[in-house]
């Protein structure tokens, strides 16, 4: 790189002036867009000096990890090779002719994978565009990868936007990649050593951001598609590209269990969640129905006041990862209801609370008492309610579930008690007799009863007291059904707050059974291994859990209970390539939540490597290494002592 002393002085002055808010120097041709320092860049320069303690004239050379050090870091992404690699190839194919290099950096800013053509290989290497280079902002100052990771936002760092003078020949456009748990896991970068400008980079940004979105969406589908219906929302009715779609995972209860990382910002302010859930559930039902009839699933318009089209991509029973977008739909598989073995062995297991629940259930189920099942979300309340139905005298009758939280207040009355033909816009032409009437002779399962609006509680109370239903415009019909209600809320507290009718509470809680959270089950280990084996059988895999994974599973608090366990197991089974399920096959939130020490030791390890490498480069000279790292000699000594690094 040939930069004369004058250029260096000008660059340093410009950076310092911007930090000091000296507009005249930082924007010499004020009004000229070309010279204006973008705000994000200015903020990063300020961060470099004030937070990272780097000075623009003490430029560090990049710190580089060896092949041996980079391999394990890259292996983490290898688990998801089938998702990352094709996108890197595709991006490179598009941009290679324009002399761009494609890089993937991990959350620590270390380049773990690179695509570069032979023509610019040497230049790319000279500019530090190869595996093992650490691009963290606090090491290298403002740069594409480092600043993207520092802010969590896409960014273009064009030539002298860079903080370090040796990086100014480069231009980097980078988009962050978030995991299905909304964790920042990587940065996708395209860099060129050729001169360019911000305007051109805006176009490049579109391409990079789309590639990052496609990766996020594929990770999301791999994570959620077993067990959830996946619905895509797009402003483009043709759904021509997975990148243009926003994905939602719908639980079997019809709730939105998760949004793809980009969805949150896009949707939150726009729509009322429960209304959307109700309409999306329609789309899932439509998908299942039309597919069963061999038709192309229909696109439902206007699920969100005209802004988006919805299209169900899978109904939660497909296990194969969709490789090339919405059109390549995986073949459906038989539904994974818990088997009778799971009901008798996994559910009962050796947990004393569940054993009591089962014994009690057998005694009360036909005693004419309404049953209230309580427990944390995902703990298996509905599974238990279905078990009650199965062992009851009404087993041959229907089991009709109504999710009181998923249906908008305005529609729930019609849903429960029926409506006349054409009663409201969108009502079925033939009218609807309602879930209560449908459940007659069987079980009516009122899920999330704590969310039922007060007015409706009054009507429900009347129906349950009289056990009689008068359909609109029809004669009263006598009801013979078992009402099982469920909630994760403290109903008695809701009663005390006046949000739930006390008389209804007594009417539905003839008997109360509580499902323990997964973390409190004494048979947790057995439960986990049995469920794992069942899911392995269903997936046709013969896998074992390593002791570390089993230990993690036993100690993790499982806030999402059995539902969360099921998803994690399905994901681990899908991504495990060898015969064992290793810690690397688990989502980061699991390992991170439980092993703060391991996470920080990973950080410390990176720091140690950096200090060792720098010392090596400086032939063991502490002052020179400190200078190169941009820290004082005493800080360097302190760090060496803390990390046990010898000269
Ligand atoms: N004992 C079990 N055996 C096998 N699978 C189970 C068991 N308990 C729960 N599951 C699975 O866990 C998931 C959540 O279960 P379920 O819907 O019954 O929970 P819930 O407590 O009703 O949840 P929510 O509070 O969200 O309504 C389902 O996919 C279900 O199949």
From TrEMBL:
<keyword id="KW-0238">DNA-binding</keyword>
<dbReference type="Pfam" id="PF01590">
    <property type="entry name" value="GAF"/>
</dbReference>
<dbReference type="GO" id="GO:0043565">
    <property type="term" value="F:sequence-specific DNA binding"/>
</dbReference>
<keyword id="KW-0902">Two-component regulatory system</keyword>
<dbReference type="GO" id="GO:0000160">
    <property type="term" value="P:phosphorelay signal transduction system"/>
</dbReference>
<feature type="region of interest" description="Disordered">
    <location>
        <begin position="319"/>
        <end position="341"/>
    </location>
</feature>
<dbReference type="InterPro" id="IPR058031">
    <property type="entry name" value="AAA_lid_NorR"/>
</dbReference>
<dbReference type="InterPro" id="IPR002078">
    <property type="entry name" value="Sigma_54_int"/>
</dbReference>
<dbReference type="InterPro" id="IPR003593">
    <property type="entry name" value="AAA+_ATPase"/>
</dbReference>
<dbReference type="InterPro" id="IPR025662">
    <property type="entry name" value="Sigma_54_int_dom_ATP-bd_1"/>
</dbReference>
<dbReference type="InterPro" id="IPR003018">
    <property type="entry name" value="GAF"/>
</dbReference>
<keyword id="KW-0010">Activator</keyword>
<dbReference type="Pfam" id="PF02954">
    <property type="entry name" value="HTH_8"/>
</dbReference>
<keyword id="KW-0547">Nucleotide-binding</keyword>
<keyword id="KW-0804">Transcription</keyword>
<dbReference type="GO" id="GO:0005524">
    <property type="term" value="F:ATP binding"/>
</dbReference>
<dbReference type="InterPro" id="IPR027417">
    <property type="entry name" value="P-loop_NTPase"/>
</dbReference>
<keyword id="KW-0805">Transcription regulation</keyword>
<feature type="domain" description="Sigma-54 factor interaction">
    <location>
        <begin position="347"/>
        <end position="574"/>
    </location>
</feature>
<dbReference type="InterPro" id="IPR002197">
    <property type="entry name" value="HTH_Fis"/>
</dbReference>
<dbReference type="InterPro" id="IPR009057">
    <property type="entry name" value="Homeodomain-like_sf"/>
</dbReference>
<dbReference type="GO" id="GO:0006355">
    <property type="term" value="P:regulation of DNA-templated transcription"/>
</dbReference>
<dbReference type="Pfam" id="PF25601">
    <property type="entry name" value="AAA_lid_14"/>
</dbReference>
<keyword id="KW-0067">ATP-binding</keyword>
<protein>
    <submittedName>
        <fullName>Sigma-54-dependent Fis family transcriptional regulator</fullName>
    </submittedName>
</protein>
<dbReference type="Pfam" id="PF00158">
    <property type="entry name" value="Sigma54_activat"/>
</dbReference>
<dbReference type="InterPro" id="IPR029016">
    <property type="entry name" value="GAF-like_dom_sf"/>
</dbReference>
């Amino acid at each position: 790189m040939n930069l004369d002393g004058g250029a260096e002085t000008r660059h340093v002055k410009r950076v310092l002036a911007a930090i000091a808010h000296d507009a005249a120097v930082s924007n010499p041709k004020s009004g000229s867009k070309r010279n204006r320092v973008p705000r994000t860049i200015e903020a990063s320069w300020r961060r470099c000096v004030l937070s990272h303690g780097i000075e623009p004239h003490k430029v560090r050379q990049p710190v580089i990890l060896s092949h041996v050090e980079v391999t394990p870091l890259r292996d983490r992404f290898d688990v998801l090779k089938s998702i990352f690699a094709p996108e890197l190839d595709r991006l490179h194919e598009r941009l290679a002719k324009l002399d761009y290099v494609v890089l993937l950096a991990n959350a620590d800013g270390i380049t773990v994978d690179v695509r570069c053509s032979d023509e610019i290989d040497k230049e790319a290497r000279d500019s530090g565009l190869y595996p093992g280079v650490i691009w963290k902002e606090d090491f290298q100052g403002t740069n594409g990868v480092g600043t993207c990771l520092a802010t969590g936002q896409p960014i273009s760092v064009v030539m002298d936007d860079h903080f370090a003078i040796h990086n100014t020949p480069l231009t980097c456009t980078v988009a962050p990649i978030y995991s299905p748990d909304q964790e920042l896991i990587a940065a996708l970068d395209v860099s060129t050593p050729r001169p360019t400008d911000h305007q051109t980079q805006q176009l490049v940004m579109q391409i990079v951001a789309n590639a990052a979105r496609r990766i996020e969406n594929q990770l999301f589908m791999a994570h959620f598609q077993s067990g959830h219906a996946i619905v895509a929302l797009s402003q483009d009715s043709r759904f021509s590209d997975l990148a243009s779609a926003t994905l939602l995972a719908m639980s079997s209860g019809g709730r939105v269990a998760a949004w793809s990382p980009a969805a949150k910002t896009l949707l939150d302010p726009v729509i009322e969640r429960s209304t959307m859930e109700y309409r999306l559930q329609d789309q899932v039902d439509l998908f299942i129905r039309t597919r069963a009839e061999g038709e192309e699933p229909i696109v439902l318009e206007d699920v969100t006041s005209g802004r988006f089209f919805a299209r169900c991509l899978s109904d939660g029973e497909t296990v194969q990862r969709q490789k090339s977008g919405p059109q390549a739909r995986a073949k459906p598989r038989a539904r994974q209801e818990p088997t009778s073995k799971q009901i008798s062995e996994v559910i009962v297991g050796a947990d004393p609370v569940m054993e009591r629940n089962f014994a009690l259930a057998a005694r009360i189920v036909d005693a004419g008492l309404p049953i209230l099942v309580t427990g944390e979300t995902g703990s298996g309340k509905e599974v238990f309610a279905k078990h009650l139905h199965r062992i009851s005298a009404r087993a041959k009758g229907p089991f009709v579930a109504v999710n009181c939280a998923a249906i908008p207040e305005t529609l729930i009355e019609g849903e429960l008690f029926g409506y006349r033909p054409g009663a409201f816009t969108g009502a079925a032409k033939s009218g609807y007799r309602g879930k209560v009437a449908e459940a007659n002779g069987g079980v009516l399962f009122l899920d999330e009863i704590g969310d039922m609006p007060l007015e409706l509680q009054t009507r429900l109370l009347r129906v349950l007291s009289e056990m009689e239903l008068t359909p609109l415009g029809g004669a009263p019909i006598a009801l013979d059904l078992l009402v099982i209600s469920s909630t994760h809320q403290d109903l008695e507290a809701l009663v005390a707050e006046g949000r739930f009718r006390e008389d209804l509470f007594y009417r539905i809680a003839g008997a109360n059974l509580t499902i323990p959270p997964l973390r409190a089950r004494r048979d947790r280990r057995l439960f986990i291994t049995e469920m794992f084996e069942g899911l392995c059988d269903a997936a046709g895999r013969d896998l074992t859990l390593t002791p570390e994974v089993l230990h993690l599973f036993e100690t993790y608090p499982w806030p999402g209970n059995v539902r969360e366990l099921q998803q994690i197991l399905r994901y681990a089974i899908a991504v495990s390539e060898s015969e064992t399920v290793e810690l690397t096959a688990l989502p980061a939130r699991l390992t991170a939540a439980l092993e703060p020490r391991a996470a920080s030791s990973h950080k410390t390890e990176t720091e140690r490597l950096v200090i060792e490498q720098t010392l090596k480069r400086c032939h063991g000279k502490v002052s020179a290494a400190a200078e190169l790292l941009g820290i004082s000699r005493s800080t360097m000594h302190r760090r060496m002592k803390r990390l046990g690094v010898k000269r």
